Amino acid sequence: MTAQACLIIGAGDDTGAAIARAFAREGYVVCLSRRPRHADKLLALAASIQAEGYQARAYPCDARDEDAVTALVARIEAEVSPIEVAIFNVGANVRFEVTETTSRVFRKVWEMACFAGFLMGREVAKPMLARGRGTILFTGATASVRGAAGFSAFASAKHGLRALAQSMARELGPKNIHVAHVVIDGAIDSRFIRDTFADVDDKRDTDAILNPAHIASNFVMLHNQPRTAWTHEIDLRPWSEPF
């Protein structure tokens, strides 16, 4: 074991990939995870990071599966390196009118955006507590603090994730484990947004959309904070975003 590991649950194409690259450049072995159906994209991301001269490994995993998450953390700890940083970056942003939100949709969104965060947080906390150090970071959204029309399932899950982060911070902070929640308040320059909205180029030219690399730099900053001045919650938005 020559380096410490950074586990990223939800290592997607945009924000997750940017976070992975940022921590790889900090010298961490980035352990990338997302759903098995996206294994090809996960492997491609790991290969691209390796091609830049950094360390990355791909671990397809359903973050809602308790046994799978437990096994994932144990495997990284045994085969790669101690997990120094763990980041939960699963999205699950869906929009349905409340009368059209089925119990299956509501439950699935909660499992993806909240329950999976609990599983990751619980499992990485165990070895971190044994070592007496570590960082656990959760990606939030506007919906973490404000429920909007059409987002009952998503807002409920993200509110729950924020509450989980608060409870974990109060429990684990005094034991030298930094737990922080990052509210992403605004549109991200991502493939989904580019495919959905026509004015992304204009927003990018005027700095009116969140840049994934700039989001990632804040995650690195949170991890590197001295424990005399830890931040629990930070919100990120473009200068033009109302709040």
The major β-sheet equals: 7 strands, parallel
- End-to-end CA span: 45 Å
Radius of gyration: 17 Å
Record field, number of beta strands:
7
Q: What's the SSE pattern?
A: EHEHEHEHEHEHHHE
Task: Name the strands of the widest sheet in spatial order.
Answer: 3-2-1-4-5-6-7
Looking at CATH, the homologous superfamily is: NAD(P)-binding Rossmann-like Domain
Coarse morphology = globular
Q: Quickly count the domains.
A: 1
Q: What is the CATH level 1 assignment?
A: Alpha Beta
The fold-level CATH name is Rossmann fold
Mean pLDDT: 95
What portion of residues belong to β-strands?
Answer: 15-25%
Labels describing this entry:
alpha/beta, Rossmann fold, 7 strands, 47% helix
Characterize this entry briefly:
With about 240 residues, the protein is an alpha/beta fold. About 45% of the residues lie in helices and about 15% in strands. The model has no long low-confidence stretch (mean pLDDT about 95).
Secondary structure layout plus pairing:
Blueprint (H helix, E strand, L loop, with lengths): L4 E5 L5 H11 L3 E5 L5 H13 L4 E3 L7 H14 L3 E6 L14 H29 L2 E8 L10 H21 L4 E8 L6 H6 L3 H6 L6 H13 L8 E4 L7
Parallel strand pairs: 1-2, 1-4, 2-3, 4-5, 5-6, 6-7
Helix pairs in contact: 1-8, 3-4, 4-5
